[in-house]
Amino acid sequence: MMLVAQSLAFGAFAWFAARLLSAHSSGVLPEAAPALLGIGAFAIALLSATFDIAYDAYAVETLDPDEHAIAPGLRSAYYFGGVLLAGAVAISLADWLGWPTVFAAIAGLFLLFLPIAFINKEKRASPQVQRTLRAAVVEPFAAYFRRKDAWALAAFLFAYKFGDNLAGTMVNPFLRDLCFTNAEAGVAVKGVGLVATIAGGLLGGAAIFRFGLWRSLWFLGIAQALANLLYAFTATNRGVDLIAANCLTSLPPLAASTRVWAYAAIGGEYLAKAMAGAAQGALLLRVCDKANAMTQFALLSSLFAVGRWAAGLPSGYLVDAVGYPLFFTGCATIAALPGLFFLWRLRRTLAEPGSVADNARLPSR
User: Fold this and answer.
1) Nearest-angstrom CA–CA distance, 33 and 39
2) pLDDT, position 363
3) Would you state the pLDDT for residue 201?
4) Taking a C-beta distance cutoff of 8 angstroms, is the pair 355, 286 a contact?
5) pTM to 2 decimals?
6) Which of 9, 10, 285, 303 is nearest to 160 (CA)?
7) Are 303 and 158 a contacting pair, CB within 8 Å?
8) How far is 318 from 34, CA to CA, in rounded Å?
9) What CA–CA distance (Å, rounded) separates 257 from 292?
10) What is the pLDDT of residue 353?
């Protein structure tokens, strides 16, 4: 499946490059071009999701328990390295080389990495391929929810990063209200934040390897929550009501100390978030049933997105109601407590026979 998704993604980007080159050569954009490009973009997003699910299932099926510590951290580091390459680097090169050449280069990368997926075969026999929708989707879902800790695990995955997700949705508006320019905000989030995320993924894997999965989930979950206090300190340091519309009129220039606090907050929050995410990913690797890895990992990992979506709904209203200092303080405390509660509850159910993690050899520490 990974080979199929990569091959089709190569074809999609190559088609993008060809269509744009044809339009550039003729100097005329076809009337159907927007619709065709939209379909192509949708296809690429669908193939990307398919590859992620197949890759995650491959990881669950082939990694040994002693490899679960470092694998999620490395995956996070490589993933965000790819984000940097295909995002900021590609956009910058487009000004010099043009989009047809950039899309052709991205297609070439997919082709270049195809042999890696081909040569990395399973270390053991894969579970039998399911031939029906019921066997591939319905039964794995039913098998998961028959386990004793199914709901505890689902609640944990939804709530563990809720406070951080709540704060994260307001980082960009917060920087604008601090009077950061769009360019500087982009450097701060995409530059400092990306580097911190890559480092956090690697450090998270090292922490799991050194202290064990359970202790890491606790320590890194608390660190992830408390890192949002740095944003509260930044807002307090500004010393004025933060309204972007006033940046060009009544607000004083941004002080150097406030700028330093802002960069420290972004770096600290992204670092802690990536470390906690590595621990959360390691837990998923251990609790998924190898025989139903693809379906169950897709189900559990989708709870991340649901939690992120739900956290975004009230964030703007809360900032308007209480202001940035109290909002970020609440994200670091009140909003983080449910995740830690469900982590405690999950630990109790993981030890029970018949749980998702039964026989998964989760560390006791």
Assistant:
1) 10
2) 45
3) 86
4) no
5) 0.73
6) 303
7) yes
8) 38
9) 52
10) 46
